[in-house]
Amino acid sequence: MLIEKSPFVHIFKSNGVVCLYHSLYITNIYGSHLLAELFESLRFPQSIEQAAMRLLSTEGRPQNPAIDNRRAIEYIELLLKHRFLRYIDSDDENNLISTLQQQAQCATPQFLYLVPTSVCNLRCKYCHIIDTWAAYGQHHMSPETAEAGIKKFMEYSLASCKREIMFYGGEPLLVPEVVKYAVSYIRETDTGVTDTSGATTSGATTNDSCKITLFTNGTAITKDMAEFLADNDVFVIVSMDGPAEVHNQMRHYLDGRGSFEDTAKGYDICKAAGCRLGISMVLGRHNIPGLKAAVEYLINRFEPVDLGFSTLHLHQHGSNPAVVDIKLLTEEMIDTFRFIREKGVYAEHLFRRIRPFVEQQPRLKDCPSCGGKFLVAPDKSIGFCEAFLGTGLYYYPLDSFDLSNEGYNEWKGIAPVRRKECLRCPAIAICGGGCPYDAWVQHGSINNLDTIRCQQSNILLEWLVWDLFGQIKGEVKEVWDMVIPEPAQRQMIYSKIDAVSKNLPLQGYSSYGEGKDVEGLRMINNLPPNPSKEAP
To answer: Cβ(378)–Cβ(141) under 8 Å?
Structure first.
């Protein structure tokens, strides 16, 4: 039976060590230069014996031909077992791709963004929302629209998929009465705690209750609102980019005053009320370089449950004034992650790339807007991505919307595994396809590549490949040595971070699109024998 190298295997080299990485199965094997030389020699299908002879020829004349030939064959058979090499008539990879493509197309609404107002009291220099929402205008949501949006979401989502509702803006707390009404309505209609009389306790939550998150700039938080949010188990995520001298460079009021003092005050009010709190950071030239120092300050000062590292989005009209080289930004994120994982601090956006690599489950979609998210706007329209509000694209009347909507089905189909040009990319399993909005700004279509995040994903992948080798203290001392990480060893990348803590926000949102139910991939990573393939 003839063998060949898998076209989904990519070669990484560092400090004399070679890593083969299978981009579909998310598996690694480390060794000497022999790994690279073997793959470079397999330019056409051949038998195991032929491949062994070629492998031996790279090392010169064998000193003990029988022993060395057996060793070369065992070396190749191990690569076959772990699917870096394949038999020429194997359909395993094609079948897996087909399964992933089908799964990527099967999306269910799981997340709702409610926008109580399109108005914001800040004018952050880098904000892509202000850039696109200018044409939309200033609108406040009515309680009736909030209720209609929640009902529509509940109608088309499945309770079994653990619904999450997020308040977004604008600044949601500029219309506190709408936020309170919507939160109360969610808690009254969602699964709650039943008391001894059989009645559902308003405001009480269970593990099956809808998760609610509020994104806020923190400047409009009052004691009354903070207590309400705490009582209703609303996770509060406050936007902060670092200490005052960093934060105020970009995040300020219309008159130019920095917002840090008011934001910090709002955060402290929420903390005193007992809210669970996280911090969302936008990364740009104001905190890059120097990200680790900014993060260390925020951790020490505010003690957030988690941090979000948001990469800048593009502006439709002109360039984003905070833009920074993506290579530098990603290297700063990596350096900062090394620091925070030893502190046990979770980093939401980074985990969208790290978790698929560690858990060996591909991320089929980067953004829940691709079939998993509705956004209800103040004017009683419904769409999928906040950045498109005001562009005239992908927003529809709420009353008449259903899942047969053409726009919804276009967004639902976005996934790199369904793009021919993405299939051979090393980072396909951790990428998810990036941001459709940024792809639209760059190339005029949501179905095109977000080339900025393509680059970022590949940088992160190479770091993950070598960080894993370092974490397991891998060594390649002899030319025939190979190191194959066990699944449990991959968890070492997390270090002190509890990646499955129920106290973390946005867990469903963060892991959306990850192929956790792909039976074929689960079987591959348990390493069954190659089915019915024996060398002659």
So the answer is: yes
Q: How far apart are CA 277 and CA 505, in angstroms?
A: 9
Question: Bridge-partner residues for 450, per DSSP?
Answer: none
Contact 226, 269 (CB under 8 A): yes
The conformation of residue 195, written as its DSSP 8-state character, comes to: -
Kindly state the helix (H) or strand (E) to which residue 4 belongs, with its residue range.
strand 3-5
Residue 4 neighbours by CB distance under 10 Å: 16
CA distances from 61 to 56, 78, 393, 529 (A): 7, 23, 67, 32
- Residue 265 CA to residue 32 CA, distance in Å, equals 56
DSSP letters, 103-161, are: HHH-----EEEE-SBS--SB--TT-HHHHHHTTT---B--HHHHHHHHHHHHHHS-GGG
Average pLDDT, the chain: 91
Contact present, 440 and 446 (Cβ < 8 Å):
yes
* Digit-coded pLDDT (tens) for 107-128: 889 999 999 999 999 999 999 9
List, for residues 311-340, the tens digit of each pLDDT value. Answer: 999 998 889 999 999 999 999 999 999 999
Distance of alpha carbon 210 from alpha carbon 208, whole angstroms:
7
**Could you say which DSSP state residue 71 is in?**
H
* Eight-state DSSP code of residue 451: H
Quick one: which of 368, 417, 524 has its CA closest to 99? Answer: 417
Q: Which residues contact 501 (CB under 8 A, 6 or more apart)?
A: 346
CA 397 – CA 229 distance, rounded (Å)? 30
Count of CB atoms situated within 10 Å of the CB of 88: 11
Q: How far lies 232's CA from each of 113, 163, 224, 488, in Å?
A: 18, 16, 13, 37
Enumerate long-range contacts of 420-423, CB under 8 Å, 24 or more apart: 421/449, 422/449, 423/97
**Phi, psi dihedral angles at 252 (to 5 degrees):** -145, 170
Q: Which residues contact 419 (CB under 8 A, 6 or more apart)?
A: 433, 449
Mode of pairing for the β-strands spanning 111-114 and 9-14:
unpaired
Of 220-229, 410-419, 443-452, 505-514, which gets the smallest average pLDDT?
A: 505-514
Question: Which alpha helices (H) appear in 256-311, and where do they start and end?
Answer: 260-273, 291-302
pTM, two decimals, is 0.92
Cα separation of the two ends of the chain: 6
